[in-house]
Amino acid sequence: MKNSVMIDSQSAGREIQTVLSQIRFVLSFLGNSGYSINCK
Fold first, then answer.
1. Residue 35 and residue 20: Cα distance in Å, rounded?
2. How many Å apart are CA 24 and CA 4, to the nearest integer?
């Protein structure tokens, strides 16, 4: 049971990191588009 829980926590950590990286990419993309719109 403990081993399975550790594996689940590791996979969950990877999913969280991928989601955070996706959020950062979206925020940076929105920020860049916002800056370009403000420049116009």
1. 22
2. 30
The DSSP letter of residue 40 is: -
Which pLDDT value is given to residue 31? Answer: 81
Round the average pLDDT of the chain to a whole number and report it.
79
Burial class (CB in 10 A: 0-12, 13-18, 19+), 35: exposed
Which structure tokens are listed for 28? 């940076």
* Residue-wise pLDDT tens digits, 18-35: 999 999 998 888 887 766
CA–CA separation, 6 and 13 (whole Å): 11
